[in-house]
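Below is a filled-in request sheet from our internal design queue. Each sheet records the structural input a requester submitted and the sequence that came back. We keep these sheets so that new team members can see what a complete request looks like end to end.

REQUESTER: design group, bay 2
PRIORITY: normal
MODE: inverse folding
CHAIN LENGTH: 162
BACKBONE (tokenized):
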């Protein structure tokens, strides 16, 4: 491995889920500091991925139990926009395919704009159905945010069923 550049080794490791023991030993014995940094970075990314998979398994445990009990479709619903002083409240209702995998998904407030946009695309690709309901700020002022949130959720479910 010493004859390969650090960038060549990095390219070879990029898609590996496991480094073979003999290759790992060669890399650990490589005198270049860059190789040791590369290994530490690879180990960190692997651990982060393991944690992400475990978190997703924990987050989806109820759905998995329902699927195992014979349920075919499970809808999830949530709203956004209850905090701002002006603007609509938006709700989405989604039925994901049973084999859907969304590692790294989290509350939208916890995700960067870039990740939210990537998950938007992933959700639509892995969804059996999606419904969205929007209630304007004007209506929120008329009926209050709680009632507007419920109305947005009902609209999202209706769109999901259409």
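RETURNED SEQUENCE:
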């Amino acid at each position: 491995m010493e004859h390969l550049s650090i960038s060549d080794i990095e390219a070879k490791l990029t898609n590996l889920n496991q480094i073979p023991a003999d290759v790992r030993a060669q890399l650990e014995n490589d005198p270049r500091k860059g190789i040791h940094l590369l290994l530490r970075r690879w180990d960190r990314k692997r651990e982060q991925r393991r944690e992400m998979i475990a978190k997703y398994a924990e987050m989806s445990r109820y759905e998995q139990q329902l699927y195992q009990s014979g349920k075919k479709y499970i809808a999830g619903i949530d709203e956004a926009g209850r905090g701002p002083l002006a603007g609509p409240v938006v709700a989405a209702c989604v039925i994901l395919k049973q084999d859907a995998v969304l590692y790294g998904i989290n509350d939208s407030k916890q995700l960067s704009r870039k990740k939210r946009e990537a998950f938007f695309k992933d959700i639509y690709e892995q969804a059996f159905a999606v419904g969205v309901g929007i209630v304007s700020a004007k209506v929120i002022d008329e009926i209050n945010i709680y009632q507007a949130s419920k109305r947005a959720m009902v609209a999202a479910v209706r769109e999901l069923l259409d």
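SHEET NOTES:
- The two ends are 58 Å apart (CA to CA).
- Helices lie at 6-13, 21-29, 33-59, 61-68, 113-126, 137-143, 145-161.
FILED BY: M.R.
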